[in-house]
Automatic annotation (TrEMBL):
Stored SUPFAM superfamilies: Family A G protein-coupled receptor-like
Principal localisation: membrane
Topology term for the membrane: Multi-pass membrane protein
Protein name: G-protein coupled receptors family 1 profile domain-containing protein
Positions of the G-protein coupled receptors family 1 profile domain: 50-305
Residue intervals passing through the bilayer: 38-61, 73-95, 115-138, 150-171, 199-222, 242-261, 286-308
UniProt keyword list: Cell membrane, Disulfide bond, G-protein coupled receptor, Membrane, Receptor, Transducer, Transmembrane, Transmembrane helix
Subcellular location: Cell membrane
Length: 348
């Protein structure tokens, strides 16, 4: 709703300027349809396979679960839920911005994007806090964060994000330019409501979690640097784990940060500045790419599970070894049977 909105933006600028300018007066935006289609097909393909595999490993193959596992299960479920709405978006873009599904699906698809975006941020923040406590308070971490408490935290995150994102359910499909549109605000009042929601989401949904993560990692780095050399050797694997978290979460915030900054600038320009076609077209192009980056987080989270989730990595390794062992045993058994049969034929 805050993203694929060039038609709604052009229409609103026309109203503000008291002109009869068409939706395409600021230039054609047809470039966005193949762009969104191509990237969302890639995100759908990777995200569906990766998150289904992650849930399968976490739920059915991981025997020793911990609080991190609970959070990662919820994160994977959030990504999978969003990915499952992508076929509707892809169809919309392949049909050059014409919504052929129900109004309900339009609302759900819009809602799912923001629920996934902010549950991902909060679940990643929770994992960072868990890691912070585990490193700075290793003896108390097991009693502070239990599986039950991790489940309660997960439910609280889902409830909070679902409730605060519910206003997006008010934005359904509507007719514009001779087509049924979705993901595009229809009037000035819609943009004003979105601006208010943007600042709330920016503060609570992004800025606060981002500051918490930065604080956690600064404290972790300081703590590791203060360890003596002997302890450093014993903590080498833990240090590598923290370094990997920094790398992966940095990638995630390269996805989230540009999107939130550009979304805010875009909305402020729309509601505060005089219409400027050149600037409008430029900002629309930027927000298209930022939206794709934000949506791509559903494909990146499985990397977090593999490199940070020790149990996840061990389970996959054991599974691979088990498969190789079974294959080796099958080949060995076949070889033995063939050898015995050959000896029996020679004896005859």
């Amino acid at each position: 709703m805050l993203t694929e909105n060039h038609h709604g933006l052009a229409a609103m600028l026309s109203v503000r300027g008291n002109t009869t300018t068409s939706n395409h007066s600021c230039g054609s935006d047809d470039y966005k349809y193949p762009l969104f289609s191509a990237f969302f097909i890639i995100i759908l393909s990777i995200g569906l396979i990766a998150n289904c595999l992650a849930l399968y490993v976490f739920i059915w193959l991981t025997t020793k679960k911990n609080p991190n596992t609970v959070i990662m299960i919820n994160l994977a479920f959030s990504d999978l839920s969003f990915v499952l709405t992508l076929p509707c978006r892809i169809a919309y873009y392949l049909m050059d911005g014409e919504w052929i599904f129900s109004d309900f699906l339009c609302r759900v698809s819009t809602y799912a994007f923001y629920v996934n975006l902010y549950t991902s941020i909060f679940f990643l923040t929770t994992l960072s806090v868990f890691r912070y406590v585990a490193i700075l308070f290793p003896m108390r971490s097991k009693t502070i964060f239990t599986i039950k408490r991790a489940a309660v935290i997960s439910v609280a995150i889902w409830a909070f994000v679902a409730l605060t994102s519910s206003p997006f359910l008010l934005f359904g499909s509507h007719e514009q330019g001779g087509k049924i549109r979705c993901f595009e605000p229809k009037d000035v009042d819609s943009w004003k409501r979105i601006l208010v929601m943007n600042y709330i989401a920016l503060a609570i949904g992004f800025a606060v979690p981002f500051l918490v993560i930065l604080l956690c990692y600064v404290r972790i780095v300081v703590r590791l640097r203060c360890l003596d050399r002997n302890l450093k050797r014993r903590k080498l694997s833990q240090k590598k784990s923290v370094a990997m978290i920094l790398i992966i979460l940095s990638a995630f915030f390269f996805c989230f940060l540009p999107y939130h900054v550009q979304r805010t600038v875009h909305l402020h320009f729309v509601l505060s500045s005089e219409p400027d076609c050149a600037l409008t077209a430029l900002m629309q192009k930027i927000i298209v790419y930022m939206t794709i980056l934000a949506a791509a987080n559903s494909c990146l989270n499985p990397l977090l599970y593999y490199f940070v989730g020790e149990n996840f990595r061990k389970t996959l390794s054991l599974r691979e070894r088990g498969s190789l062992s079974s294959s080796f045993k099958s080949i060995s058994l076949a070889y033995v049977l063939e050898t015995k049969n050959g000896k029996q034929r020679r004896n005859l």
